[in-house]
Amino acid sequence: MGLPEAGPAASPPASTVVLEDVHARHLQAIATQGDRAAYAALFRHYAPRLKSYLMTTGLPAMEAEELAQEAMLTIWRKASIFDPARARAATWIFTIARNLRIDAARRSRAADAALAQESLTPAEPEQADEVLSALEVADRLRATLATLPPDQLAVVRLSFFEDAPHPDIARRLGIPLGTVKSRLRLAMARLRGLIDPVGVKP
């Protein structure tokens, strides 16, 4: 997709020449003075035109608008490198948008390729020692649960395996709420060596 240039044999209308001169001065004012009014004028003129141009390259409206705004931000940051002797203001501005579009397309292709590669790469199997360690902890946990008194085991099962809140446990077991918490503390003291990573053998 070419940039909006006049043909080599055509002379631009006088109004276009005047507008180009105004835009070039705006760019110089931004570069030398950080002129926000000049930037606002450029934004009003070019932002919608850049969006329309980017949509002709296949971008959806929302992405085209985001990229147009990125182009305008780049213009604010890089106005100092604009050289009116080498390019017209419109050419320079549309070239920035075009380059951003190319970069976005490259990133999109790279992301698609990375995603495809990831989908083809098998997941790494769990390390044998990690699996063995987990099994050992599970066995020790079951063995320790079996040693709990029935009243503590009932509270632990309701709290950790059924995820029941403490008031619900008290209601279901017909005991005070303080008793529920007390039995949980006693049970956790027995299980702490398994739950605390420091107490688990490597």
TrEMBL record:
Molecular function terms, GO-annotated: DNA binding; sigma factor activity
UniProt cross-references to Gene3D superfamilies, sorted A to Z: 1.10.1740.10, Winged helix-like DNA-binding domain superfamily/Winged helix DNA-binding domain
Limits of the RNA polymerase sigma-70 region domain: 42-109
Residue ranges annotated for the RNA polymerase sigma factor 70 region 4 type domain, each copy included: 139-191
Gene Ontology BP terms: DNA-templated transcription initiation
Entry superkingdom: Bacteria
Entries under CDD domains matching the protein: Sigma70_r4
Keywords for the protein's UniProt record, in alphabetical order: DNA-binding, Sigma factor, Transcription, Transcription regulation
Pfam family for this entry, one: Sigma70_r4_2
Family: Belongs to the sigma-70 factor family. ECF subfamily.
The protein's name: RNA polymerase sigma factor
